[in-house]
């Protein structure tokens, strides 16, 4: 199943920007490893914002939930990270459905 994940990352005043960068570097290493393994289809960083967009391919929602709990950024500062999750459907499958429905 494909999902779009929108991560918005905040940081506390006692952490500071350098502390955020340290955690983010660890997260980047894990994210790029997951991309190499095929779990992450693609990643983007939104310019000028502390926001990352990811497309992931996992078998079940349970798997995605477990993965999210295990992310370094979630373990170290999960209370400061908002994740918006959307299920995705391949457009080709949707288009085939539309064509089939026209024939009814």
Automatic annotation (TrEMBL):
Stretches assigned to coiled coil: none
Protein name as catalogued: Transporter
Xref: SUPFAM superfamilies: Dimeric alpha+beta barrel
Query: Which Pfam family is an annotated match for this chain, by its short name?
Result: MIase
Gene3D superfamilies for this protein: Dimeric alpha+beta barrel
This protein's source sits in the domain of life called: Bacteria
Domain Muconolactone isomerase positions: 1-92
